[in-house]
Amino acid sequence: MSTFLGLIEELPAISVDSFSGKNLDSSVFFLSHCHVDHMNGLNNSFFEYLEKCNKYLYCSPISKLILQNTFSLNENCKIKEIYIDTPVVIEYDDKQGNNHIVVVISISAGHCPGSLMFLFQKQDKLVLYTGDFRINPNDFSKLRSLHVKQGYRLLPKKLDKIYLDTTFLNPEFSYLPSRKESIMKIHQAIKEWLDQDPRNVVMLECSACYGSEFLFMELSKSLNMKIHVRDHVYNTYCCITELAPHITNDFNSTPIHACTKKSDRSLKCRYDVSKENILIIVPSVLKWQGKDISKIAEWDEHRERTYNVCYSLHSSFNELKAFVKYFDPVEIFPCVCPKDQEKQIYDILNEIMNKSTDQILKTNKPLYQLRLSCCKTTKINTNENIYFSDDDSC
């Protein structure tokens, strides 16, 4: 759960992933992806405020589509699409009338549909905001906007600061299986269950409205069955070319359902199915804290016919360490930092930063210090698969 409050110290009058309180004084807004902890303050009043003040929100085409369907916005709303690896020059005035120019490049975050990282360049400062992300370390070199060519070599850019997704900056989550590995376990469990009895059905207990789309697509392809989803996300999904063939709003047409809220314990769309014929699959990570994650999946000890699968949209501890060491920034700000874990998180960051690969050569590089935050329906073609990361491509 993000604790970042939206204001980037190096970029006056820009807000990212927070849209209320002091953030409303900003001149430009960015949204990394459509998960609720990154959408604080996004409501109809906010979009009316943008219209009134002639301000803009920048996000990916898919995030714009989700926002338009969620808030019934028209095509002329103050949302500008930003495309992967395409620099955008933004000129704006802050509240004091000072003029600013910033160059922004978006990078696929591999988290959920439309999820982006933002690389901001302002004068001599280069700042990366990861939002929520998961990138396979083998693919770091494929993030072309984070590299510069030097002769025949491709070198990571020198980042002044990374605002980092530290969701699993915890040694208890050192390793997390790739999504492909997790989906293979889910596929096996579903196939075995459905083969046992023609009356059997499956509930996918997903934790958020959006975020499990790659899971839906891969299961649908491998099982040759569509996934029944909730009506309010179905309309959005139908506008995403890559996803539309794999979902349905007809609950009788498929035995695989992702149509319930996490708190539901029954399949409300199929009252004709007895609970003994329902297999519940829970793709999650938090249930695995302190457990042997190398097992990937196990039956729940307390809930009948419930299969827990380790499935992560965030980078593991080892993946985060690899990311920090690879890009070796001057400074890091943790975007997931609960008050009771502050010391632990900053101690870990200090340890990682002090062990950067060329640290010995950087005698003038400052020790990272604990610092407080600077303030508390158009069809979209996604054939290039740039938003739906499978851990092996960016």
Automatic annotation (TrEMBL):
Keyword Lipoprotein carried by entry: no
Gene Ontology BP, a term: telomere maintenance
Keyword tags: DNA damage, DNA recombination, DNA repair, Endonuclease, Exonuclease, Hydrolase, Nuclease, Nucleus
Localization, UniProt: Nucleus
GO cellular component: nucleus
Domain DNA repair metallo-beta-lactamase positions: 242-338
MF-aspect GO terms: 5'-3' DNA exonuclease activity; damaged DNA binding; endonuclease activity
InterPro entries linked: DRMBL, RibonucZ/Hydroxyglut_hydro
Family under the similarity heading: Belongs to the DNA repair metallo-beta-lactamase (DRMBL) family.
Name of the protein in its database record: Protein artemis
Organism: Vespula pensylvanica (Western yellow jacket)
